[in-house]
Structures are given as structure tokens and as C-alpha cells.
Amino acid sequence: MTRTTDILVTALAPTIWGSTYLVTTEALPPDHPVTLAMLRALPAGLLLLALTRRLPPRAWLGRTFVLGTLNFGLFWVLLFVAAYRLPGGVAATLGSFQAMMVIAMARGWLGTPIRAGAVAAAGCGIVGVALLLLGPEASLDPLGVAAGLGGAASMAAGTVLSRKWQPPVPPLSYTAWQLTAGGLILVPLALLLEPPLPPLSMLNVAGLAWLGLIGAAATYWLWFRGIARLEPGAVSMLGMMSPVTAVLLGWLWLGQALTPVQIAGAVIVLGSVLAGQIANRPAAVRVRTTPPLAGAADLRNG
């Protein structure tokens, strides 16, 4: 498959993640963020384990739980803390710093060169997300800001390390391992920090099914597949598709108004995502080959 196809397939994941806010607010019981995160990750991971029938070998258990913590357990908990303590626009803007963090981490852990174009694209993306989501009600709670930046750093580290640590298994198995590990880590937190869930309605079950089967199992398979094939900086820029989808769904589904500033922000975000793919493209490797006839002549003359 071409790089363009890999980019488009990977972009489906954050595009679908943009539905998380709508599904959470409209279809799930409130005030159970850790429990809902656990129910999103663990059943999806166990289902994928049943389908792939491949458990992580002992040598990969430690790395699997580190990645499950970074990509799911810690990331989702900090994400919910930021969402509860900050206006949604502030939380999403802080999350968009992930792309900049990936550039720095990929330099340190993978030796990926820092390209000025990639840094500029990430910076423009942050500005675009701010224009798209920030409003006059934006306020800064210190704990919420720390959680927002911590969540971005957790996902950034998970993205880079998922590229650094590539087990000899298909992406679907790798996804199953990480989802299961992340879900298991969230089980004791949910039991300790939150009351039991109320009886679930059919709408609640449908919302959990969407977030688990589509928003976790399917999308993270696409995400980890993209991490294995694309540059970490290019993958992280695709994450900015999520707030664009969230705003569009709010407009289409909830009748929320779109201001000219938000439209401009969406255009900037989409432009920065495209620029990020170009800036993070690996340099073409030019291989010089000796023409067969010239080589044969050299042998005869030698």
C-alpha cells in the first residue's frame, strides 16, 4: 500500500474518536469516567485476544503493560480529569500539544531528525484547535492544566514507544495486548474511586458498544498499524482530526452554531495536518547503481 493510503486509513482512527464526546454526553451515565474507560478498553481487548488467540510472551509483558498504561490507562484517566476541571476547548487545546511532544520524544528515543516544517505544522495545528474550540468562558485550573498536558505527554510517549517496540506479531494482536493491559490497570482504580454503575439502558449499552468495538478495538488497530508504517510525527498530526470531527458532529447532531472563527480554525487544522504529512515524510533514498554494460566493460578492462 502507498504512503497516502496508509495516511488515509490511519486518519480514520482520530476522525472516529471525535465522536467520543457526543456518545459520552448523550448515551452514557455521567460521573463514572474511570469505570467507563475500563469498560471501553477491557472487553474490546479480551474480544481481540479471543479472535487473535495470541497472548504476549513473557518477554513482552513488561512493555505491554507500559504501553497499555501510557496509551489507555493513564491517558484516559488524565483526559477525564482535564475534561471535568477545564472547559472542553481548553482541554482539547492542551491535548493538541501531543504532536509537538512526539517530535521531541521521537528525536530522543528513535533518533528522528527534528524538521522545521514539522514543528511549524504542529504549532499551526495548536493555533487552529484553539480557534476551533476556545471561547470566552475559557479558564485555567492548575490541576486541570497539569492533567491535560500530562495526558498529551502520556499519549505522545505511547505513540513513540509503540513505534520503538515492535513485536513480531500483526497489529491486531498488538492492539489486543495493549487494550487488555490498559483495561486491567483501570479495574482497581474504578473499584476504588467510583461507585457502581446504575442499571444500564439499551442506549447506554449501545454507547458502550460503539466506544468499545469501534472507538477502541477497530480504531486502535488502525492507529497502531499506522504507527508501524508511518513516521511518529506524521501519525501524531492526524490526531488533530478528532476535535474537527467533534465540532462537526456538534453542529450536525446537536444544532450547535459554527462561528467564522471556528470555521477558520478548522481550515487551519486541516491545512496543518496536510503540512505535517509532507514535513514528516522521510527523505527519498537515492541508490546509485552501476549500469550493467559499464560494469562489464570495467571487468574486461581490469
From TrEMBL:
The chain crosses the membrane at residues 34-52, 64-84, 90-110, 117-136, 142-162, 174-193, 205-223, 235-254, 260-279. Coiled coil: none annotated. InterPro entries: AA-Vitamin_Transporters, EamA_dom, EmrE-like. Keywords: Membrane, Transmembrane, Transmembrane helix. The keyword Disulfide bond does not apply. GO terms for cellular component: membrane. Residues 7-133, 143-274 form the EamA domain. It is found in: Membrane. It is a multi-pass membrane protein. It comes from the Bacteria. Belongs to the EamA transporter family. This is Putative DMT superfamily transporter inner membrane protein. It comes from Antarctobacter heliothermus.
